[in-house]
Amino acid sequence: MNKLKMFCVTLEPNHTKYIRNLNYTPVVLGNKSISKEYLSDRIGENISHKNKYYGEYTFHYWLWKNHLNKIEEKWIGFCQYRKFWSLKFSSNDQINSENLKNKVLKEIPEELERYDVILGDPFFVNKRKTMKFLKKGLSLLISNPKFFFDDQARNIKFHFDLMHGKNNLDKAIDLLDKNNKEDFRKFVNNEISFNPHNMLICKSKNLLNSYYNDIFPWLENCEKLFGFDDLKGYGLTRIYGFLAERFMSYWFKKNAKYNELPILFHDISDN
Fold it and tell me: What would the pLDDT profile of 228-250 be if each residue is shown by its tens digit?
């Protein structure tokens, strides 16, 4: 087994004790009090005030600017108070506060050592039921009826248009650097799945730093396009986090040797 530094992000300081009992490092996001009991994205160089729009990426920014080079563990991972990595989880398992401790990932097995990064199991965007598509974007479906009948046409771009505003993904891609623009555009137009929840486990600080060097300048450019004040509803308000979610899948698959692991869902607020 190889040493793992797992950061678990939450919005609630009262989750700290439970997260520590998992041998994870608690991170409290947003406008909460700063404490020695957990890391906060509000100290040092930060964009904590953008948490409503960026989600977990305000912590990634803080880590990049303030803490990444201080980490000594070989593997660096990220999970959330409602989503955890697991090697031992079955869909038939009944998860509670006690057995969760035995289900979550504590160390990286030797068989995964040959990979550079671990991503969550893919989410297939073309598997949603037709009625759900209809409720979200009838005009988009009517404009191109093949979306009704062709599973492969319901790709990442189609799904993003449906959930986060028509053509917003294309507009954002136009702002990417030349090393990623066309490759990312091909990815979203050809792929029918991505690795969700902005969760990853990375073996190299250098690789993670390279990713941050690509994504944060891009998101900053996207701010000039989308702004903040006119973003209404969850699908648009969190658009920077959703852009990052798709870009993360693309970037690590392009630049690293990857594997995928299941993500276990359990809200520790229910404990």
Answer: 999 999 999 999 999 999 999 99
